[in-house]
Structure formats: structure tokens, C-alpha cells
Design goal:
45% helix; elongated
Length: 152
């Protein structure tokens, strides 16, 4: 399974901010849209990722306030990325190694979407459920043998 399989199901709604926006505005967008991350774009290029982790770290560093902090001072400026062709096993490994909950999907310099650890977990569970259904159907349709007619 590949990242493109997740994006196909998930859709391609993207939420972005610029590095020069106030962090308070970014947090308001995250709250309003009920999302855990925003991609930080500058002149069409991915320059960072802002997740609730960076927001919480900034709030703690600022003594409980956001103040006039800009997104650029809170964002992860070296986010983990993948492509639509990246295999899900590789994405899981990458996310676990870096403790990343969100990963931008890129096609060269173009942002194609964002996948979350939840999206990856859901895809794995859905795949396993489908495989289980197919195996159960296969077993149910097993050709009868001597054991079934009471002679064996």
C-alpha cells in the first residue's frame, strides 16, 4: 500500500499558513477546522510544519501565553516529508523514528497533501479487516472433503 492510497480516500483539502502569521491566528485556524497541523508555506515552497506539539512547546516557553509570537519561531523548519509513491511501511518507520504525527506529501516542490499517524493506522486496520474478510470467505467456500460427510 502506498501514500497515494490514503490520499485518494482522504481527499486533498489543505490548510496552510505563512511563517510571518501570528501563532495565535494559526492556533485559531487549527481550532476552527479541528485539525492538528498546518503546513507552513512561503512563496509556494514548504518551509515548515506547525503541529499542536510546537504550539504547546511555545506556550510553555512563553509562560503560558502566545503573545505576538510568529509561526516561524514555533514551527518545525525541517519537517519529515514523503511522496505519494512512498510505501506505507516506510512511512510508519519514518513517523515512529521521528515521533512525527503529521507528514506533508510532496511531488517535487508541490504539496500534495498531509497524512497523519491516524490516517496510516486506519489504512493498516482497514487493509487487515479486508484481508480477514477474504480469508474467512475462502475458508467458508472450502471444497467439502471426507471429514464433512461423517465418513472420515
Amino acid at each position: 500500500m502506498k501514500v497515494s492510497d490514503i490520499l485518494r480516500v482522504k481527499g486533498n483539502t489543505l490548510y496552510t499558513v505563512t511563517p510571518d502569521e501570528e501563532l495565535a491566528e494559526a492556533v485559531a485556524i487549527m481550532s476552527e477546522k479541528d485539525i492538528g497541523s498546518l503546513v507552513v508555506m512561503h512563496h509556494g515552497d514548504l518551509v515548515g510544519m506547525l503541529t499542536f506539539r510546537e504550539v504547546i512547546q511555545t506556550v510553555v516557553k512563553n509562560g503560558g501565553a502566545l503573545g505576538s509570537t510568529l509561526v516561524r519561531s514555533a514551527m518545525d523548519d525541517a519537517p519529515l516529508t514523503c511522496t505519494a509513491e512512498t510505501e506505507l511501511d516506510e512511512v510508519r518507520r519514518m513517523m515512529l523514528e521521528r515521533h512525527a504525527r503529521y507528514m506533508p506529501v510532496m511531488d517535487k516542490r508541490m504539496l500534495m497533501g498531509v497524512i497523519s499517524f491516524y490516517d496510516v493506522a486506519k489504512a493498516v486496520v482497514d487493509s487487515q479487516n479486508f484481508e480477514n474478510k477474504m480469508l474467512k470467505a475462502y475458508i467458508r467456500d472450502w471444497p467439502g472433503g471426507e471429514e464433512e460427510d461423517g465418513k472420515g
